[in-house]
TrEMBL record:
Residues 10-214 form the DNA/pantothenate metabolism flavoprotein C-terminal domain. Keywords: Decarboxylase, Flavoprotein, FMN, Ligase, Lyase, Magnesium, Metal-binding, Multifunctional enzyme. This is Coenzyme A biosynthesis bifunctional protein CoaBC. GO terms for cellular component: phosphopantothenoylcysteine decarboxylase complex. Residues 15-223 are annotated as: Phosphopantothenate--cysteine ligase. The chain holds residues 175 to 397 of 397 of the full protein. It comes from the Bacteria. Its cofactor is FMN; Mg(2+). One of its GO terms (molecular function) is FMN binding. Catalyzes two sequential steps in the biosynthesis of coenzyme A. In the first step cysteine is conjugated to 4'-phosphopantothenate to form 4-phosphopantothenoylcysteine. In the second step the latter compound is decarboxylated to form 4'-phosphopantotheine. Catalyzes two steps in the biosynthesis of coenzyme A. In the first step cysteine is conjugated to 4'-phosphopantothenate to form 4-phosphopantothenoylcysteine, in the latter compound is decarboxylated to form 4'-phosphopantotheine. Pathway: Cofactor biosynthesis; coenzyme A biosynthesis; CoA from (R)-pantothenate: step 3/5; Cofactor biosynthesis; coenzyme A biosynthesis; CoA from (R)-pantothenate: step 2/5. Binds 1 FMN per subunit.
Amino acid sequence: IAAAFRPKLLAGRKVLITAGPTYEAIDAVRGITNRSSGKMGYAVATAALELGAEVMLVSGPTSLPRPAGTQLIDVTSASEMFDAVKQHASRSDMFIGVAAVADYRVAQPSKQKIKKSDAALTLELIPNPDILAYVASLPKPPFCVGFAAESEKLAEHAGAKRKKKNIPLLAANLAQNAIGNDDNELVLFDESGEHALPRADKLTLARALMRHAVALYMKGNRK
Ligand code: CTP
Ligand code: CA
């Protein structure tokens, strides 16, 4: 009910969101993935919808239901996520990268199941494209919001990450607080410094993040 009274600050705006983990195949049955439930990304999608946005959610494998009202594009690997984002990024007003994208994929995944043996097995991993950095470097980028999962030195790593990716806003959390939990703590980093959001459930945090993002977006603050 409260949502009905929220001002529709993003009416007519397109918001593109990535969420969940990606899965990089090793063979027909095995793969490499990241720990992510998708809850934070889906909460951000819901918060954007409440603000009246047209929301496209590019999601890696999760067990969550599609937030009603969003357009969902299901993907598995980082390459598939990248392709989906490339198709829609330039037509979006805002891009929010919440996905825990695998940084590497297996160089030569096997079509058949690899049979185990007593010998050690070495996998060659090659880097995946950085989807957020790609979107941020488009000629006319949408307003970009990044997430950072860190295990230590949150402020140092997250502040550096925001500058390196050249994005106006980054939400950082400690992986040990966030993964799979319903509650989380977020620290927002923007040009004016850092803003800690109090511990709350993910939808409450997503709404606070979206309010902050919209305020910067309206100000035309694009760095
Ligand atoms: N991201 C992305 N594509 C990748 C890797 C990360 O779009 N291939 C995005 C994530 O969705 C997130 C942000 O970049 O919004 C930061 O992700 P994170 O894993 O914290 O940082 P990395 O830049 O990958 O650095 P590292 O994992 O070494 O900390
Ligand atoms: Ca990473």
